[in-house]
Amino acid sequence: QIMLMQDFGSTILLCTPSYALNLAEVMEEEGIDPAALRLKCGLFGAEPWSESMRGEIEKKLKVSALDIYGLTEVIGPGVASECIEEKNGLHIFEDHFIAEIIDPSTGKVLPYGEAGELVFTTITKEAFPVIRYRTRDISRLTVSPCSCGRTHVRMDRISGRTDDMLIIRGVNVFPSQIESVLMTIEGVEPHYQLIISREGSLDLLEVQVEVGEAIFSDEIKGLETLARRIEHEIKDLLGVSSKVKLVEPKTIQRSEGKAKRVIDKRKL
Fold first, then answer.
1. Nearest partner of 80 among 89, 65, 93, judged by Cα
2. What is the DSSP letter of 101?
3. In degrees rounded to 5, what are phi and psi of residue 163?
4. 78-118 pLDDT per residue, tens
């Protein structure tokens, strides 16, 4: 992929955010300066990602990173996209789609500004139209003005899915919430995995996260202090206890598609 970008002078990168970071990692290993490429902008989607991860991508790839949204059942990519001017919500193309937010439990339509499950109805799609299609994606809608001048309703970045929500000891947990904690801590890499298991009747959450080479080669005491800090931050935000395991760089498997963030070993 990097060779193709070099050969063809690509200016736009379209992939998952986790794969963009994988490309940045390989460029660093190969001694390739991203600034030497012609990349100007990246459109990233297909998996939840945080503002902190956006910052990592922009810093490492030297591009402006935009969120894009789509789903196969509706049209594929192109249902909504951020504008480069503001990067504050994704403009839904309302000349083709009607968007609603509902309570995932009751199906009740929620007002603008409230978080819930995103629902779409297609207006112009032929042969396979959908009516009030439940996406399972968690977002909220806003009609506040945007500096870019577009007047389409905007949706928030997807914060998670109703079907990838983990229930750990009665607490609802989305992987993106844990990611938001990890990305605020210096020395932690944007590659992580959540391992859920059960001991007796209690759920156990293990967070495996890569740290930088300099930190991993540090003394054991320093690693233990960092792990305890992450555990504390997760408990403060989510109210759930976890065991953090710091692993060396490139331990967690990379993927060209959606990153596998959760391994649930519970037998429910």
1. 93
2. E
3. -100, 0
4. 899 999 999 999 999 999 999 999 999 899 999 999 999 99
Domain-ending residue, one of 9, 40, 62: 62
Helical spans, DSSP H, in 13-168: 17-30, 51-61
Q: How confident is the model at residue 186 (pLDDT cuts 50, 70, 90)?
A: confident
Q: The pTM is what?
A: 0.71
| Residue 166 and residue 174 in contact, taking contact as beta carbons nearer than 8 Å | yes
Last residue of a domain, one of 162, 190, 209: 162
Domain that holds residue 240: 166-264
Rounded to whole angstroms, the Cα distance separating 55 from 51 reads: 6
Predicted pLDDT at 82 = 97
Q: Specify whether 134 is located in the same domain as 187.
A: no
Q: What is the dihedral of CA 166, 171, 174, 176, to 10 degrees?
A: -140
Residue 226 and residue 246 in contact, taking contact as beta carbons nearer than 8 Å:
yes
CATH number at residue 205: 3.30.300.30
Q: Look-up: residue for tokens 């389409």?
A: 152
Task: Give rounded-to-5 percent helix, strand, coil for the chain.
Answer: 25, 35, 40
Cβ neighbours of 249 (radius 10 Å)? 14
Bridge partners (DSSP) of residue 66 are 43
Q: Sign of the CA dihedral 24, 28, 30, 33?
A: positive
Do both 9 and 56 map to the same domain? yes
Q: pLDDT tens-digit profile of 175-184?
A: 888 988 998 8
Q: What is the CATH number of the domain that holds 123?
A: 2.30.38.10
Contact between 89 and 142 (Cβ < 8 Å): yes
Q: Hunting for tokens 């690693």 — which residue is that?
A: 223
Secondary structure class of 12 (helix, strand, coil): strand
Nearest to 183 by CA among 53, 21, 66: 53
